[in-house]
Design a protein that fits this description.
heterodimer, A: mainly alpha, Fumarate Reductase Iron-sulfur Protein, Chain B, domain 2, 2 domains, B: FAD/NAD(P)-binding domain, FAD/NAD(P)-binding domain, 5-stranded parallel β-sheet
């Protein structure tokens, strides 16, 4: 992928137009994009705005401009700066949802397997694997310093002697470290049915083909059990 | 025999309608739910009126004096309409007060039931009633009217004060999509008064659009040029408590600075106008239409803003939508003229 001087990936204008039209056709678009006074209350209340060059007001204004060029400038990095906390949607006097627009654009990026989506979702492959294999999102053995840098200096201690620490929890646990709770095969099959319907497997295939292969094997095993 | 006309509401519009009708020789029954005349300006002790800063008492006090002077006006204090029936082209009305009921027939009716100030506590982001130093424009007006302008939290004069516009207006969350028309001008007027009396106190106004329409624009320019009021574009997202007994306004300066968190000694919320509970009440009692904003609906907003959808019932003042006192007084006169014409025609 090539980038221009502003760090925006270079794609044909026809493609940018296609992306904008895809967003505009989303069933949520009309609900999320309404009038705007540029009052800035969304950005004033936006947590990531404190840390990044990210403004929900700009997201909405770019969308309202209906300019495919402007909208494309957000696809590489901008849309991934949002925390998806939806404070903007909660606070907007027009009931706009800049966070919802971000969700629509992110889903396009994921469905189409854009580089930015691959990069951002890479750390989640462990979670996806755990989820499809065991129906658990997170288990004790996934708590490792490399994956939780934001847990601060005690993460090193938290990640050691997991089996012992688990036994110390004063409530019934499975007494293992690779599972948080037991999920019945029936529940797993239901989860796969939902993933099929919602297109989750297709998304995984687009974003991480090698992960998809591993997951397919697991799914086949569970389904034939 | 002279005509009998009922005026409901003793604020600026109702007072002026009653006074004009009495000058025409009409017997006016002026019904007021409060124990005093003057409406919201009196109730909340407005001090000076824009645009020329004349004392509110000169205007409202003058009208009250005329209404109470007797003549053709009978004032029913602390009263309300308990029964309302059409009788041909006339109206049979029962007026109820603590002293009892009185049934009368009127030739026409003027509704001037006014507005309510928006209660800023309904919008939690402003922390009204949570922090003592967050007040609204009507609170400030009363404080200045009582010559008691200090920080409610510690009784000391503030050094830095913020005005926040469009509180309870232009916001789908609180159900009011409309602009309340006067809050910009009231806030600018109050900022000027503050800077005049307390030159040490910095004043900020946070706005989306400044709607000091018509000649009110003069005040806006004056605030910037003569009184050095800081005018910042951006809606406040949150008010929190800060160090040293301050309140912090958090928002985005959409033109210049980007995100900000500024501590203030006091915050004044420019709360807007609402139809209040009295509008639907009078609407169902008299069988006149209510609009989608919670105000009474005129028959034709442009051609006859002072007529209800029902012949013989006329509207005046802020009961049909947010407006300035001068507009209410004008509408009082217009409604009086129309109510009189209707009464004479159907005598």
């Amino acid at each position: 992928m090539e980038y221009d001087e502003n760090g925006v990936s270079i794609v044909p204008s026809e493609f940018k137009k296609e992306i904008f039209e895809e967003a505009g056709k989303d069933f949520r678009y009309q609900e999320y994009v309404r009038g705007c006074l540029n009052c800035g209350v969304c950005t004033g209340g936006c947590p990531p705005h404190r840390f990044f060059d990210f403004s929900p007001r700009i997201v909405l204004q770019n969308m309202k401009s209906k300019d495919p060029e402007l909208i494309w400038t957000m696809m590489d990095e901008y849309i991934w700066a949002c925390f998806q906390c939806f404070t903007c949607a909660m606070i907007c006097p027009f009931l706009n949802s800049p966070g919802g627009i971000i969700a629509i654009l992110r889903e396009i990026a994921v469905r189409r397997g854009f580089e930015s989506a691959k990069k951002v979702l890479k750390p989640y492959s462990r979670v996806l694997l755990k989820l499809t294999a065991y129906g658990n999102q997170l288990s004790p053995d996934m708590i490792q310093p490399d994956f939780f840098p934001d847990w601060g200096p005690t993460i090193g201690y938290a990640s050691t002697d997991l089996a012992v620490k688990r036994k110390a929890i004063p409530m019934p646990t499975l007494q293992v470290t690779n599972l948080s709770w037991d999920v019945a095969p029936e529940a797993m099959k239901e989860l796969y049915a939902i993933f099929d319907e919602a297109g989750v497997f297709k998304i995984i295939e687009a974003v991480d083909p090698s992960l998809y292969e591993i997951i397919q094997d697991i799914v086949d095993d569970v389904r034939s059990s | 025999m002279s005509e009998n006309i009922l005026v409901v509401g003793g604020g600026p519009a109702g007072l002026n309608a009653a006074v004009m009708l009495s000058e025409l020789g009409v017997n006016v029954a002026l019904v007021e739910r409060d124990s005093f005349l003057g409406g919201n300006p009196k109730k909340f002790k407005y001090k000076f009126l824009f645009p020329d800063m004349q004392p509110a008492d000169n205007v409202i006090g003058e009208l009250i004096k005329k209404a109470e002077a007797g003549g053709g006006i009978k004032v029913y204090y602390s009263s309300e309409i308990s029964d309302f029936k059409e009788n041909g082209k006339k109206f049979d009305v029962t007026l109820k007060s603590a002293d009892g009921s009185e049934k009368k027939t009127f030739d026409s009716v003027i509704v001037a039931t006014g507005f309510e100030h928006f209660d800023p506590a309904r919008d939690a982001k402003y922390s009204y009633q949570l922090f003592d130093d967050v007040i609204d424009i009507k609170d400030l007006e009363r404080m200045m009217g009582e010559n008691n302008f200090v920080r409610p939290s510690n009784g000391k004069p503030p050094k830095k004060i913020a005005f926040i516009l469009c509180v309870g207006s232009r916001d789908r969350h609180v159900g009011n999509q409309y602009c309340s028309r006067v809050c910009c001008t009231v806030s600018v007027k109050q900022a000027i008064e503050l800077r005049e009396h307390f030159p040490d106190c910095e004043a900020y106004i946070f706005y989306m659009d400044i709607r000091t329409y018509g000649f009110f624009e003069d005040l806006y320019w004056q605030a910037m040029e003569e009184y050095d009021v800081q005018i910042v574009k951006g809606r406040i997202a949150e008010i929190t408590s800060g160090p040293d007994n301050t309140v912090i306004c958090k928002g985005e300066d959409t033109l210049l600075r980007g995100p900000f968190e500024i501590p203030f000694d006091m915050v004044v919320l420019a709360s807007g106008m609402e139809g209040g509970p009295q509008s639907p009440e009078i609407s169902s009692k008299l069988g006149i239409e209510l609009d989608e904003h919670g105000f009474l609906k005129p028959e034709n907003i442009t051609l006859s803003p002072f007529k209800s959808n029902k012949p013989g019932i006329f509207l005046a003042g802020a009961c049909t939508g947010p407006k300035a006192i001068s507009d209410s007084i004008t509408e009082g006169a217009a409604a009086a003229m129309n109510a009189y014409t209707y009464a004479v025609k159907n005598r």
